[in-house]
Amino acid sequence: MSRRTFNNENYAWSSKAQFAGIILLLLVVNTIYIIVSSQARSMTTQYFQDNNYELIFEDSDMKDDTMKDGIIPNPGAAASDYPSPPDTDPLMQYSNVKLNCNSKLDDNKETAVLITSNWIPSAPKIDVIQEVIDSLSQLKGLSPSAPVFIVVDHLFPTHQNNGRHLVGKERINRERVLEEYSSNLMREYKNRPNFRVIVNKVNFHIGGNLKKTLTILDDDTKFLYCIQHDFKFIKEINHTAIVKAMKDYPQRLKNVRFNKKTNVSKRRGDLCWSEPDAELRVEGANFTKTSGWSDNNHFASVDFYKSLIGHVKSVNRPLEAPMQYNMYAYHNCSEWAQHLYGAPWQGRHIIHLDGRLGNRADMVKVVANVTQAANLTKATNLTS
Description:
By secondary structure, this protein is α/β, with parallel strands linked by helices. It is about 40% helix and about 15% strand. The chain is built from eleven helices and 17 strands. The strands form five sheets. Strands 8-5-3-9-15-12-16-14-13 form a nine-stranded mixed β-sheet, with helices on both faces. Strands 1-2 form a two-stranded antiparallel sheet. Strands 4-11 form a two-stranded parallel ribbon. A hairpin with a 2-residue loop joins strand 6 (about 160) and strand 7 (about 165). Helix 5 (about 205-215) crosses helix 7.
C-alpha cells in the first residue's frame, strides 16, 4: 500500500470519529438541559403548591368577566421593556398568570364593595388603603364577608410628573412600584376569600373601573359601594337602613353619597335641594337630595350604576365630570341626583387621607392621638 493511500484512509477515519464525537457531545448537552429544565419546572410548581396558589395561564383576548375568580398581577408594560427582575418572587415575575386563592364565598352577596386605587407617592406601602378597608367596619349591617373588589388602575397613558410626561426608565420604575404595591395587597388579603385584587393592564379611571366591576359581580349582588382608596369612613353608617330605604323608595332614593363636608346646598337655587321631597327619613337614617354630584364614596343599586354607565358617552374618567358639569342631576333630580347621607347641616362622614401626599395617613393618626390625649387631659382636669 502506498503512503498516500494510507494517509487518505487515515484522514477519512479521523473525520468520521470527529463527527461521531460531536453527535455524542450534543446528545449529552441535550440530556443535561432536559434534566435542568425539569427540575426548574418542578421547583416552580412546588412553590405555588406550597403557597396554595393555582396557576392558570390565560389568553390575552380573555374578557374582563373571566377575572372574577382570582387575582391578576401585571407589571403594566411589555416584558421586553424590563431588565431581569432583581428578586425571585414569582408574583413579580409572572405577568400573564391568574392566581386563584380560594374563590368560594358565602351566600351573603347582596351588597359588594368596590375600592378603586392607583399609583400614589406612598406606594408600594399599602397603609392608606388599609385604613380605608378597616373603616368598612363603620358600615353597620354590612356582612363582614361581603365581596370586596380592589381594582388597581394602570398609569395614565400620559402620566405626568411636575408637568413632564413620564417616559423611559422613570415610567418603568413607577410601574414597578405599582406592581409591588399590587403584590403587597395580594399578600395582605390572600387569605380572605371575599377579597379580589384586580390589576388593570391599561388605565380605566373611576368610571371605567366601575363599568368593569359591574361585569364581574355575582348575579345575586344588588347593591354596590363605590369607594376611593383614600376616603375613609369616620362615623357609623346605617347600612341596613340605606338598603331598606332603597327597597322601599326605589324611584325616590337611587344614589347615596357620604359627604366629606357639612351637608349644604351645592349651589344657589339648587332645584333638587329645594324639592318638597328632598329629605327622606327611614329607620332613623336621614337622606338629603342635592344636584351636586361627586365621585366621593357613594352607594347605589347595581341597576342604577348600569343605567348610569349606559348614559355616559365616555366612562374612562371621573363620573362627576359629566354628571356635575353637564348638569345631568340638576336637570333631572328624580333620575340622577345624589342624596347626601344625613340631614341638612349635619357633619361629614368621611375624610380625605389624600393619597397624593405620602405621609398624610400618618399625619391623620398623629392628630387623632394628640386630640385624644388633649380630651383625656381636659376630662381629668374637670373631675379633679
